[in-house]
Each structure stands twice: as structure tokens, then as C-alpha cells.
Design a protein that fits this description.
The chain contains 15 helices and 17 strands. The strands form four sheets. Strands 7-8-6-5-4-3-2-1-9 form a nine-stranded mixed sheet, sandwiched between helices. A three-stranded antiparallel sheet has the order 10-11-14, with no helix packed on it. By secondary structure, the chain is of the alpha/beta class. 37% of the residues lie in helices and 21% in strands. Iron/sulfur cluster (SF4) is lined by residues 29, 32-33, 36, 38, 40, 78-80, 113, 136.
């Protein structure tokens, strides 16, 4: 693939001091949850070995191609990284440590399912250098967990968290989903309160989306499950926001809360529209002025990665700013200046402490204040944005749940 158009920021090199974030996609799950449309698969455990060879090969080839950049954060996501065979997460991290300049104290997160987190597994993960666990809890109601096809129950969540603590993890995120079919406000309140009783450092919560092609959507369309009620989901969000606020959590992004200083550094890099490299099947990257993604099929991905590694000079097939002939890359879009500007606004305003438009302009090299004068004025008049005395602009509380619609005004 040859990219001839000059992308926005192409002159930026990821080898510059600010470094990149690194996302490693793990495509394996013990079973596929009926609401999930991620690029993940059950029943392909025979591909564990090929995946490991492919992803470590791709990690090292990119490091050479990009001139061994600094890495600020690492995120093993998926999929279920905790479902990888013992030792594989360690090999992935060794491959990263051996080929990039991983910053001291870098946040290294692994997404985990509660039923994988025995004490032995937690100790193994901690020994690899992983210092943050993100656990897919979703609910503390066993009936709703069964409807979601989850393989754990509420007691296992508490047991898994205890194992994390005993293994030395002091930075744990718990993921929740609300707005589920048949879920009552009382059930949701019980989940929130039981989660708060565990004092995690970070909580993420997302409203259920009935994704195209998922069994859960099909069941709702067939009338086997009731359609989720968006007004009730909004009440659930408000309830959680009040309870988490009372419990002292900092609400720093529309869907994310944390204890002081425990913001997700990896996700902050996304919201600040900084550069990241994604490796593994179907992973997306935003680097050197381009957005690109790898082949989705784990089998094909492993083949392409080994083709890349076997090239005489694998690193020569990709250079910063021009992603050419990389076998694992399946598609590429240039991020032109207009798109880069829109994304900076769209993502930056999700952060509830607000956005310093001047600083964001300087970082992106685009005068955002001038470009979006009309849109910013309209959103302010409509009561969705408010300006602080120090010149920061932020979402008003009333706009949290309609932010995505509001932000479409920034799109080209
Ligand atoms: S465990 Fe997570 S990634 Fe895997 S199928 Fe379920 S929701 Fe999707």
C-alpha cells in the first residue's frame, strides 16, 4: 500500500520525546458474549501459538520501523488477555520492553475477566510488569450477568478483586454496563453500591448499545427481550453519578470516574488525540498523520505478521509518515487537517475538566478557536458548553448524555 497524500502531522515523528501509546489486541475469549461486536472469537485456542509469534513479530517490526520510540502507556485489550496461556502476556511485554523505550512507571493495563483471576494468575500478571487491571464486571446482578452471557457471578468479582489486591495491584478499574433489558433502577443501584463497597481506583460505565449483528439485538428485535428504555438509562447514569460523587470519585470523562490521580493514562492519550500504535488482529492506530488498521482475521493476521518478519528488511516497509507495504495493515486513511481538528474537539471535550483550546491548538498546530468560532458560540448559547475564567471550555452537566450528538457540529 502506498500513501501519497501528505497527511496532517506527517512531519511529526513518533520517535519525538512525547512518545506513543501502545495497544495490543488479544482476540481470544472463552465464550462470545451476545452483546459484543468486538473482533474477538471463541474456540480458536489452537491459534494461541501463531498469534503470539505474530504479535511479537509485529511489535518488533514496528519498533524498528518507527526508530524505537518511547512508549508512555501499554494496554493489553481485547478480547480477554487474562485468557492467554500462562506466560504469553509476559512474552508480549518482554518483546515490547526489548524493542521500545518504555518510560519508567508507564501505566501497563491488562483487561481481565473475573473468572480468570485466580491468585496464581494475578501473581503471574503482576510479575510481567502489568500494574493496572481492568476487569469486565458489567453487573453485580447474577440474573443480568447470565442474560449477558457472562461466565462469572458477583461473588467471583469480589474474589477476583481480593486476588488482585493480594498480588499487589493497587490500580484496578471495574467496567459496568447499564441500560440493560429488564434492568431496574433498584438493581442498578445495588450494583453501584456493591462496587463502591469494593473501593476500586477507577470505574467505567457505559450504556448498552444493541450492536448490529449481535444476538442480543436479534433477541430484542424478535421480542424475546424488551427494548432498553433510554429514559431509564439516563436515570441510571444520574443515579451513578450522584453516588460516585458522594463517594469521592472524580468524574473526569463522560463515562469514567477515578480516585485522585488514577485517571486512565492510556485512555487520556486517546482523548487528547495523541499518537498510538495498535498491534494484533483488527487493531487500529493513529500515527504519523494516518489512521490505519490491521487485518481482522486472527489466522490471516498471524500469516501476514510472519510475512512481514520474514522480509529481508521488515522495518524498511514502514516509515513514519508513510505506511507502505506493511503486510499486516489492511486499510489506511489520511487524517487531513480538517479531520484532525474535529477529532481534537470531539475527544477533548469528553474530558470534564474542560479543554484548554489554546494549548490544544498549539499541540495540534491548528488554530481551533478560529476554526470553530461559530460552533463554540452556538454550543455555548445552547447551554451545552461553559467557559471558565482561565479560558478553558467544558461540557455542562446537562450535556453529558447528549455530548455525542452535540459534537457532530465539529465534524467536517
Ligand atoms: S469477554 Fe469481553 S471481549 Fe470477550 S466476548 Fe465478552 S464482552 Fe466481548
Amino acid at each position: 500500500m502506498t500513501q501519497a497524500v501528505e497527511p496532517h502531522g506527517a512531519s511529526r515523528s513518533p520517535a519525538r520525546d512525547e512518545g506513543i501509546s501502545l495497544y495490543v489486541h488479544v482476540p481470544f475469549c472463552l465464550s462470545k458474549c451476545p452483546y459484543c461486536d468486538f473482533n474477538t472469537y471463541q474456540g480458536i485456542e489452537s491459534q494461541f501459538g501463531d498469534y503470539l509469534a505474530g504479535v511479537t513479530g509485529e511489535i518488533e517490526a514496528w519498533a524498528r520501523a518507527l526508530g524505537r520510540p518511547s512508549v508512555n502507556t501499554i494496554f493489553l485489550g481485547g478480547g480477554t488477555p487474562s485468557y492467554l496461556p500462562d506466560g504469553d502476556a509476559g512474552q508480549i511485554l518482554e518483546s515490547i520492553a526489548g524493542s521500545y523505550r518504555v518510560r519508567d512507571g508507564a501505566e501497563i493495563t491488562a483487561e481481565c475477566n473475573p473468572n480468570d483471576l485466580t491468585l496464581e494468575k494475578c501473581v503471574e500478571l503482576r510479575a510481567t510488569g502489568i500494574n493496572r487491571i481492568s476487569m469486565g464486571v458489567q453487573s453485580m446482578d447474577n440474573g443480568l450477568l447470565a442474560m449477558l452471557g457472562r461466565r462469572h457471578d458477583a461473588d467471583e468479582v469480589i474474589g477476583a478483586l481480593k486476588c488482585c489486591r493480594r498480588a499487589g495491584f493497587d490500580n484496578v478499574n471495574l467496567d459496568l454496563i447499564y441500560g440493560l433489558p429488564r434492568q431496574t433502577l433498584e438493581q442498578w443501584q445495588d450494583t453501584v453500591e456493591r462496587i463502591l463497597a469494593q473501593s476500586p481506583e477507577h470505574i467505567s460505565m457505559y450504556s448498552l448499545t444493541l450492536e448490529e449483528g449481535t444476538p442480543l439485538r436479534h433477541w430484542v428485535q424478535q421480542g424475546r427481550l424488551p427494548e432498553p428504555d433510554p429514559d431509564l438509562a439516563a436515570d441510571m447514569y444520574d443515579l451513578a453519578r450522584a453516588e460516585l460523587g458522594d463517594a469521592g470519585y472524580h468524574h473526569y470523562e463522560i463515562s469514567n470516574w477515578c480516585r485522585a490521580g488514577r485517571e486512565s493514562q492510556h485512555n487520556l492519550a486517546y482523548w487528547r488525540n495523541l499518537e498510538w500504535l495498535g498491534v494484533g488482529p483488527g487493531a487500529h492506530s493513529s500515527l504519523a498523520g494516518c489512521r490505519f488498521w490491521t487485518v481482522r482475521s486472527p489466522r490471516e493476521y498471524a500469516q501476514k505478521a510472519s510475512e512481514w518478519v520474514e522480509m529481508a528488511e521488515p522495518w524498511a516497509s514502514a516509515t513514519a509518515g508513510r505506511i507502505e507495504g506493511v503486510p499486516t495493515v489492511d486499510g489506511l486513511e489520511v487524517i487531513d487537517e480538517e479531520t484532525a481538528a474535529a477529532e481534537t474537539m470531539f475527544l477533548g471535550l469528553r474530558l470534564l475538566d474542560g479543554m484548554d483550546v489554546s494549548a490544544a491548538s498549539e499541540r495540534s498546530g491548528i488554530d481551533l478557536m478560529a476554526r470553530y468560532a461559530t460552533e463554540l458560540a452556538e454550543l455555548t448559547t445552547d447551554g451545552l458548553l461553559v467557559w471558565d475564567a482561565d479560558g478553558r471550555v467544558r461540557l455542562r452537566e446537562e450535556a453529558y448524555l447528549v455530548a455525542n450528538q452535540a459534537f457532530t457540529r465539529f465534524l467536517p
